[in-house]
Request: fold
Amino acid sequence: MNPQATKSSLLKKVYNHTFSILKHNKLLFIPFIIFSILELLALIFIYISPRMPFVIVLGPPIKAFFGERFLHYPMNFVLIPKLASNIRTILSILVGSYLSAVAVQVISNLYEKKTVRMINVFKASFKKYAAFFLVVFIITILFQGALQLPSVGLRKYFLTGHKTLLFLKPSMWFGPLLTGISFVISVLIQACFAYVIPVLVIEKVNPFKALLGSCGLFFKSFFPTIMLVGIPMLAYVPIIILQYNTLFIINKFYPELVLFVAFLNVLITSLFVDVLITVSTTLYYLKKKDSLLQGKKALDTAEEIQK
Amino acid sequence: MIKAPVLKIVSLFVVLTFLGCASNDQYSIERKYWKIKKQAEKIFKNPTASPPNELEQVVKRSDAFIIENSKNPLAIEASFNIARLYIVKEEYDLARKHLQKIIRENKKLPVICSEALFLIGNTYQLQDKWSAALEQYKKIIREYPTSVKALDIPIFIAQYYKVKYQPEKMLAAYQDAIGQYKTLIEAYPNSLLAFNAYLLVSQCYIALKDWQMAVKTFETVIEKFNGKAKMDGAMFEMALIYAKQLKDKGKAKEILTRLNKEYPKSRYSKVSMLFIKELDKQ
Reply:
């Protein structure tokens, strides 16, 4: 049998199962809704930070880290995408790690056709909070480091006096190309660590084994994993383009549109991209595990018959 | 069930948000002003094509904004914006009338008055009435000698003559400028104003191609203000004059070495290193 065809049929099965689970189990959305509410609250805080009385508390850190001008209209909108992204990173480590584990546990229970009691899942997952926090913290550091690499490399290259790279000027490299490269790196890193939480929750191994296990499975199932992570992330592309053109939006339309885009970003990321990636990769992992077990059983039976 | 303290915090947040967003704080004033500025931008971009009622609308909205926020610095900016709109629409009399009003209302603020006088001068200049413009420019020097505009004006006048191909008048204007800056230096020695005036004197000597005097002025300013202000720019310019104009490479190298020693983190540091290498090659 053609292995490529097997992989694509498995992908199809995974996506069918994903949509079916999401359609019939609205409970699964709870962790993602909680995360999106937190993100939206943070976004509201960012938006109102230059206004009285919030500016008294939030003004000084913004002034110290980014500059005074970002506390004034409409420049505060320029900062919204950056601050929203930073807050999302912090929330992902502190809360997102735990909520992902809750979601994975729910998917695992549904897959095994067990009854799901959300409160029990929340309680059980909280016991392993430290492990989830640690893995997401490590992944975030690797992710941020990897995202810095191309810009640092390009800066060094052009600072040494080069005027073009592959016939393209620095403005092209530091503009749309860097955004594109960053997107590809995001997909690769996310795909590489897509199975960490499922391994941690389902196999109950230590965080470092989970990290290695996820990387191993990623390299073994490179194409399906990239598809499972990359396809939902394509929904994020229009948002990237809009956020890349924040100044254009402010000058050509209304600054408030930047806030709308940021809200849209939260909804798309937390309630669509994250949901699809988490559910599909967890199901893929479970199906892969099942097929391995079945294969092993078949081998054992064949050996017994031979004996 | 949501616990009482959580409910209290959420209610407080909602109330504060409502109060903050409803109040007329600096942010909401900036927002109102931005909208007026956006409308004005359309006229600035295409003054001839914009209809007259558009100007009327912007002026009306700006006036209302100024009355509503009379104590806010943006009110002054809005007022200047009205004058600039009249200028681009070639309504010079209206512009001057408005600028005179700004001067009357801000008599005690030299920065605002000097800027208004400068714009009045600009309106005359746009009408090809140089002597009337010059009168306004000289008024700035006379009445607000310590303002930033007053420092810029003497060189601005000299550059006008340069653009108009009047070399004799240009040279005379530069000599006048040097005299005015030196008067300021004498009146306010050891001040930041004197420091800036010294640098402008050296710029005038450079324009006059009097390299010896330019270098001498740089030396004086370095001697008087070293430690009080950053001298890397002055040192670099001095080195350039020694190398390119006075052909004294030894002196140029000496100054560049001093620059690197005293200001290792300066933005001139890398360039001066390369410059030293270049001088060594030659």
User: Anything to note?
Assistant: Chain A has 13 helices and no strands. The two ends of chain A are 28 Å apart (CA to CA).
